[in-house]
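Page 47, continued from p. 46.
Same chain as before, 257 aa.
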Amino acid sequence: MTGIILDWRTSSCDQHQISTSGCDGAVISCHTDGFEVGMDSCLERGMDAFVVVSAGDDEIVERLFAEKGSGIYFICDAGLTETARLRDLAPLTQWVPVTDVYKVEASYAFDANAYQGGFKTYQLNPGSYEERRVRGGGLQLADWVERSKYLGFERVWIDSSEAEAVGKGFDLIAARRTSRDMNGGLWVSGGGTTLAHVQNLLNECAIGSVVVGGPFLAGVEIDQLRSVVASATTQEGEGQNAVEVTDKNAQPVLATG
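Result:
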């Protein structure tokens, strides 16, 4: 079943809000105030605690591994190579690399077979609408996913700051393409502001977890969100996951209202 993860990366940890969110786990940056209190609050209540580390956080990784053992989960936002290096410091722990996905501008080119009024015209390259790359190197999303699998990561997290800024839905194109390769090990965030956005995402592809922020949960009852997730998971199991969403292709951009 798809999990619901609370994204607490950019906020000081409020252990009460985290523990009463009703989510399956919380993502907490090791560089925010009170992160260890929030982490312990999750663990005490049977929630998963996902600690975000960055490049050079060797001491923090080694200390948390020594204290918590293999029960702790790590998220790394410093690229695949650094994530793999830090993972070696805490063997047997679960690691999830996270990346920010962005849409490449649509490209045009002369088409030798297209004439209007006796002149060659620029034609849109249809494939450019769906091209996605990752920040911090500009790799094609597909190449990033392939390298993730090569390095042994069973889960990956794709975020979209562009979709988040628009607030009209998740990047379904990126999610769909990544889901094909990750076999249920995909986390998705960025752009979801309503239950309909979550429904659209889950109708589009199978994912391991949907990651939502505090502002999202402030406007949505957790039981409603769980109902949407459970419904989509049931439909997938029955072979009915391809529910048509009439507005998802309204325009070739990130969001899918």
